Amino acid sequence: MPALLRTLNTEYMAKECPTPAGTLLIIGGKENKGEDKPEDKEKSKDFERLSIIKTFVELTGKKNPVIEVITTASTVPDESFEDYRKAFAELKIENIGHIHHNTREEVLTNTTMERIEKADGVFLAGGDQLKYTARYGGTKLHTRLQERYIHEKIVIAGTSAGAMALSTPMIYAGDAEVQEIGGEIKVTTGLEFLKDVCIDTHFVDRGRFIRMAQVIVTNPACIGIGIGEDTAIVVRNGLEAEVIGSGLIIVMEGFNIGQANVDEFMTKKPVSIRDLKVHILACGDHYTIPQYNPPHR
Length: 297
Hints:
There is one protein chain. Helices cover 27% and strands 23% of the residues. An 8-stranded mixed beta sheet has the order 3-2-4-5-1-12-13-16. A 4-stranded mixed beta sheet has the order 10-11-14-15. Strands 6-9 form a two-stranded parallel sheet. The chain has one domain (22-283): Rossmann fold (3-Layer(aba) Sandwich), CATH 3.40.50. The protein is an alpha/beta fold. A hairpin with a 3-residue loop joins strand 12 and strand 13 (240-245).
């Protein structure tokens, strides 16, 4: 490498990303909102009513925080918000707002920025993750949320589609029927609160292991984190993840993938991957998200 390029590269690598002051709560979907213990969790000692919702509130550090629930991804926004309103109300939280945008034009002209500024916690509900990226990506609202996450002690949570939208790359298409066929999983850029991390939700419950493996084999510098239902990771300092909830987390690392048939992905053949590293984590486990790429900011 020429000396000038080597010097520039060294200086670039030496730049440090700011450590986020905020916290992320990334949920695998179907977090308990006050329902009784489901039968499939009977054997889990980690189940607790409202456990993840309660953690969201506690992470704000306030007794009665200002919370904004965003339901833009949902086709039934009022019903979705009401479920969360009741859950937060059971925890004696009174300041609960509802934000929903039907179009990108609404985001560009809406006056919700003042509410985003005042929020101690922002919660992205489930639905279709493309609605989050298509309506919010590159807007002032998106930028301000990122700025607050970097510089302030805000808590940003997402569940199901809301969780998937927080990362990059973001899966937006490819279900269990096609996941075994190379090239059938579609990804795009998410909202980038976590970079070089792909989040998938309902992971164990809907058998999404292969679709995540496809993302990682085509993006081996990324980490894949598959989150089970009623399960979440709390991400502090941008990298330190702690597992909470009653289910499992599957982490995939592709740094050491040696062989894969990526060259055949356009021929509709089943995917083949060797040396994919997998971690299975449960409540109380910790994982540090590795950074192999130079700083992004």
